[in-house]
Design brief:
This protein has 365 residues and is α/β, with parallel strands linked by helices. The chain has ten helices and 18 strands. The chain folds into two domains: 195 residues, Alpha-Beta Complex (Quinone Oxidoreductase, Chain A, domain 1); 138 residues, Rossmann fold. The relative contact order is 0.15.
Length: 365
């Protein structure tokens, strides 16, 4: 085991704003594990909407527009983070893969050397099902856009799989988010699931995980990405915004309605998505990158007996299940591009442009 340096490289967010707030440091102090923690030598870290939204302060109630990746006017300091205010400076990055190189007190030293994928939800492990005592890796504490990071040992999940570090770094956030959406909406083999944004990290995960449950999957994506999305084996492929969604569904699956909509976009398409839900249908949402303020006709909701699910914190069982799916080869990584840590700005710009299919990852080597 190589000696752990006193200083490390780290991309540090110094405040809400544009890219000038996200700065590369070559002499940032290497963290040390405290009681119950492990020190991880980070090998790869995936990008997610949360990284962009936290940097720009998009989570603030003062922001009402779609995600753009640019700074917003006004003060987002009190509520601009994923879980409220955020303390700066902060190292972001929640999709972490690496190796344990040191452990704190009360942690089994046999863990040193283990390859791990990190559960991004921080919990009170004395009461892990308590949703009120949770945080997010890279927001409440420093994350993986650095050479090293510390985290509670119970968040570091050992994994044995023949995938590269970059491939493995595509799973944690996107697939746990997708599994949570499907769990909350109680998706099973009798369901028909409509998946807007199916070319993104969460969208491609939703297709695979809903297929795994035996559901009928209807993927929506821009035409130029249909060949890529087809690799996930959806039951049917539709344009990103069909002129007539009911007619498109009728043509694709022989009916105008679906039982479940899993949405991470929101925006002006929201009423159309709600309108194609069958009576008793379920809508599950974990994002609003196309716009957080939407039109809802309450008559549609109550007259059709619809159920709405807001989905952020997932149950503790989700992440261990995800690790089992990966090790069994039941779900596959969709790696869109790899950037070195030094090019995190360029990686974020590519992520914001949404020309990719799957996940973008930065690597430390």
């Amino acid at each position: 085991m190589s000696e752990i340096p006193e200083k490390m490289r780290a991309f540090v967010l110094h405040g809400h704003g544009d890219f000038e707030q996200l700065r590369l440091h070559s002499d940032w102090p290497t963290p040390k594990p405290s009681d119950g923690q492990v020190l991880i030598h980070v090998k790869a870290c995936g990008l997610n909407n949360t990284d962009i939204n936290t940097r720009t302060g998009w989570y603030s109630k003062s922001v009402t527009e779609a995600t753009t990746g640019a700074a917003y006017e006004g003060d987002q300091n009190d509520d601009g983070g994923w879980d409220g205010g955020i303390n700066f400076p902060r190292i972001q990055g929640g999709d972490v893969v690496g190796n344990i190189v040191s452990v704190g007190r009360n942690v089994d030293p046999k863990l040193i050397g283990r390859r791990v994928i990190v559960d991004t939800i921080l919990r009170d492990w004395d009461d892990p099902a308590n949703f009120e005592s949770t945080g997010y890796l890279g927001s409440a504490i420093d994350g993986g856009f650095a050479d090293y990071m510390v985290v509670d040992s119970q968040n570091a999940c050992a994994i044995e799989v023949d995938l590269s570090d970059a491939e493995l770094a595509t799973f944690a956030i996107a697939y746990s988010t997708a599994e949570n959406l499907l769990n909350r909406a109680r998706v099973n083999e009798g369901d028909t699931v409509l998946i807007p944004g199916a070319s993104g990290g969460v969208g491609s995960a939703l297709v695979q995980l809903a297929n795994r449950r035996g559901a009928t999957t209807i993927a929506m994506a821009s035409r130029e990405k249909h060949a890529d999305v087809a690799r996930f084996n959806p039951t049917a492929l539709l344009p990103r915004k069909p002129d007539d969604l009911k007619r498109a569904l009728q043509h694709a699956i022989g009916r105008e309605t679906v039982s479940v909509v899993t949405d991470i976009a929101g925006g002006d398409q929201f009423p159309t998505l709600i309108d194609v839900l069958e009576r008793g249908g379920r809508y599950a949402c974990s994002g609003a990158i196309a716009g957080p303020i939407v039109d809802l006709d309450l008559r549609t909701m109550y007259l059709k007996d619809l159920t709405f699910h807001g989905c952020t914190i997932f149950e503790p069982k989700v992440f261990p299940s995800l690790v089992r799916y990966i090790e069994a080869g039941e779900i596959k990584p969709i790696l869109a591009a790899i950037y070195p840590l030094e090019e995190l700005h360029e990686a974020q710009k590519a992520f914001i442009a949404k020309k990719h299919t799957g996940n973008i990852v930065v690597t430390m080597d």
